[in-house]
Design a protein that fits this description.
- The relative contact order is 0.14.
- It is globular and about 45 Å long.
- By secondary structure, it is an alpha+beta fold.
- It has one domain.
- The termini are far apart.
- The strands form two sheets. It has an eight-stranded mixed beta sheet, with helices on both faces.
- The protein is built from four helices and ten strands, in the order ββαββββααβββαβ.
- α2 packs across α3.
Length: about 210
C-alpha cells in the first residue's frame, strides 16, 4: 500500500456509455481513470493508495466465455494471500475503455476479515461510479446486491463466463450493476455499461430491473 500526501478532493469521473468498433457498449472511462479515481476516494479515508497501476495487474487475453478475446486484468493487493478479494476489469485488446468490472470474493475460504475487505472494495468502487450518492446509500446498495448474490446461487454450468443472465440488474443512466454467484466460483459485484436497449434485453431474458 503506497502512502500518499495528495489532494483532499476525490477525482470525480464523468462516466457515460460509448460503443466500440463492433457496436458493443463500453464505459467512457479507462482502467487508468478508474484506478486514479478509486485511489482518490480511498486516500481520503486511509491516507494511502490501494490499487496499483494496471501495468502491475495480472493480465491476459481471455480465450473462453462471454469475454473471449478481451483483455482480463485482475488486481490483488497481496499475491501471497490467495483469499484476498480482487478486482477484475475487462477491456478490448489494445484498448483501455472498460467493458465490465467485477469485485470478487472467495466465499469458499470465508472469513469475516476477508468479507469486510470485500465490502470495503465494493464501497470504494461504487464511489467511483456514483459520486453523488451518500455513503449510506452506497452501503445499502452493495449490501442488497450481495444479499441477492447469496439468495440466487447458480449451478456451475451457469457460471459467470457462461453468459447466463443475472437475476437482478440495478441501473442509473449508463451504469448497470448486478450480483452474480455460481457454485465453485467467487461472489461478484458486477458493473457494466448499459443503454435503454441493453436494459430491455436484460428484461427480455428474465432479469428483474431496478432503477437506482
Amino acid at each position: 500500500m503506497k502512502k500518499e500526501q495528495g489532494t483532499k478532493v476525490p477525482d470525480i469521473l464523468d462516466i457515460s456509455c460509448d460503443k466500440d468498433i463492433d457496436g458493443k457498449p463500453v464505459f467512457s472511462i479507462s482502467i487508468d481513470d478508474f484506478i486514479r479515481s478509486y485511489n482518490s476516494y480511498y486516500r481520503l479515508d486511509m491516507q494511502a493508495d490501494y490499487l496499483g497501476p494496471c501495468t502491475e495487474w495480472y493480465c491476459y487475453i481471455q480465450d473462453f466465455g462471454k469475454h473471449k478475446d478481451e483483455v482480463h486484468y485482475e488486481f490483488t493487493a497481496d499475491k501471497k494471500i490467495c483469499t484476498l478479494p480482487t478486482i477484475t476489469i475487462f477491456t478490448m485488446e489494445n484498448e483501455k475503455q472498460i467493458r465490465e468490472l467485477t469485485v470478487n470474493f472467495d466465499d469458499h475460504s470465508y472469513s469475516d476479515e476477508m468479507y469486510e475487505k470485500y465490502e470495503e472494495m465494493c464501497f470504494y468502487t461504487l464511489c467511483v461510479f456514483f459520486p453523488n450518492k451518500e455513503k449510506k446509500e452506497l452501503v445499502r446498495l452493495y449490501k442488497e446486491l450481495n444479499k441477492l448474490a447469496y439468495k440466487h446461487i447458480f449451478q456451475n454450468e451457469q457460471g459467470f463466463d457462461s453468459g447466463n443472465p443475472p437475476t437482478d440488474l440495478f441501473y442509473n443512466a449508463s451504469i448497470g450493476i448486478y450480483p452474480y454467484f455460481a457454485y465453485g466460483e467467487s461472489v461478484r459485484l458486477c458493473i457494466v455499461p448499459v443503454t435503454q436497449d441493453t436494459v430491455k434485453q436484460y428484461k427480455k431474458r428474465g432479469t428483474k430491473i431496478h432503477k437506482i
